[in-house]
Structure formats: C-alpha cells, structure tokens
Amino acid sequence: MNNLYLVRHGHTVWTGSGDIAGRTDVELSEQGVEAVKRLAASFSNDKAFTHWYCSPLKRTRTSSALLREHMPQQSMRPLPVETLDERIVELDFGDWEGMNWAQVHEEHGQILQAWGDDWINRSPPRGETFQQQVDRCSDWLQDTLLQMQEVPESSAMVVSHGGSVRALLCLCLGWPLTEAMQVSIDPASLCWLSRRTPDDEWHVRMINSQYA
Questions:
Q1: How many CB atoms neighbour CB 41 within 10 A?
Q2: 131 and 121 in contact (C-beta within 8 Å)?
Q3: Which residues contact residue 43 at a Cβ distance below 8 angstroms, ignoring those fewer than 6 apart?
Q4: In the prediction, which pLDDT does 74 show?
Q5: What is the pLDDT of residue 78?
Q6: Distance CA 129, CA 110 (A)
Q7: Distance between CA atoms of residues 152 and 150, nearest Å
Q8: Considering all CA atoms of the chain, what is the largest pairwise distance in Å, rounded to the nearest integer?
C-alpha cells in the first residue's frame, strides 16, 4: 500500500486580512499553531511514515515540526528525516506579494481580471502561472514516487500550501486543472490518497480532513 498525506499549513498572521502571502515568509498565528496541534492529535497510533517532505517556508516548517511533536506515533517509533523541497512551495504572486486583494483590485484591476479569466496560463506581474506551479509539483511527485517504490508499504507526509496541494490532487487523480479551485483546502487540513501498488490509480480517502 502507498499513502500520500497532503497537509496544508495552519493559519498565518496574515490569514483573514486579505494580504497576499505566496512566497512571502510569514509566521503561523496562535490559531494556526493550535489547529495544527489538533490535526496532529487526530492521527491514529498505527500511522507509520516512511518519507516526510516539507516546503521550506516558515509556516510550513513550523506546521511540520508541530505535527512531528504532537502526533501520537511520535513516542512509538522514529519519524523519517524531513526533506525540504522548493518545488512544493506556494504560487509566486510576484508584484502582488504583500499587497491586500482590495488594493490589487484598485491598482491592478484590469490585470487582475485578465488573470482571473485564465489563472492557469496567466500570472500576476513577475509571478508564476498555476501551470508552472503544477509543473514543478509534477517534477517533485515523479521523484518522490520513485523513492517511495524503494520502500514496501510506503507512506509520505507532505506539508505544503493550498495551491501545491491542489496541484498534487490534480496530478494524482487526473483532474483537469480547471477543477483545482472547486475543492476547499483549508488551513491545517489533510488530504489522504492511497493505492495498493505503484501501478494502481490513486483513491481519495480524505479531502480537506473529511472522509470521502
């Protein structure tokens, strides 16, 4: 059995403010810390991870550390070494990083509308497209699945971002990219995919911390 556990980081100090933090390295809020602790406690003792990956931004590294500290299995068996990987970082919003969405609407209204009409292939100014995010996540996924094939009954924890989780769901499940934004990926939420063998299709066990 192969398992992929995709976790989005907890709430940040910018969550709810409308400020844009793609590559901006913001911290978790107190609410985010507590939410990740609750997510960690929800894992059962029998979850054994063979691989552990994390985006290198602070909000994901802190979330990863909290998961490792507060999961019930922590006292039962050693966890795998955490691997930081830039390829699963959040979308780069370019010139819009650190701005408020209301400010972007006011100052870059036409560009924002054009981006909204085709966010897969268009980017914020000096940012990246969703297709580019998908491409780098695909590169990471191919490498990771090869590593997982070397370990029987492998399970990988991936602590990342909303955009990257959506990209990985599309890649694993064959969803068209146009469907990526149709599913909610809340802060401190879990998506769980599994398959019996590397030749099988992935099946959804949980989306946004809700059993499928």
A1: 11
A2: yes
A3: 71, 72, 73
A4: 54
A5: 84
A6: 17
A7: 7
A8: 55
DSSP state of 91: P
Q: Residue 44: what pLDDT?
A: 84
Backbone dihedral angles phi then psi of residue 182, each to the nearest 5 degrees? -80, -15
Cβ neighbors of 190 (< 8 A, separation 6 or more) are 5, 6, 7, 39, 42, 206, 208, 209
Question: Contact at 8 Å (CB) between 95 and 84?
Answer: no
Hey, which CATH number is domain 2-211, 3.40.50.1240, 2.60.40.1470, 3.40.430.10, 3.90.550.10?
A: 3.40.50.1240
Neighbouring CB atoms inside 10 A of 184's CB total 12
- The torsion angle over the Cα atoms of residues 133, 148, 195 and 175, rounded to 10 degrees, is 10
How long a stretch of residues is the chain? 212
Task: State whether the Cα torsion 59-61-66-72 is positive or negative.
Answer: positive
Residue 76 in this model has a pLDDT that exceeds 60: no
**CA 177/CA 96 separation, integer angstroms:** 23
pLDDT at 212: 83
Determine whether 130 is exposed, middle or buried from the number of CB atoms within 10 Å of its CB (0-12, 13-18, 19+).
buried
pLDDT at position 163, please? Answer: 98
**Model confidence, pTM:** 0.96
The residues that bridge with 155 in the sheet, in sequence order, are: 3
13, burial (CB in 10 Å: exposed 0-12, middle 13-18, buried 19+) = middle
**DSSP 8-state secondary structure symbol assigned to residue 156:** E
Strand pairing partners for 157?
A: 5, 52
The two three-digit tokens of residue 199, written as one number: 């030749």
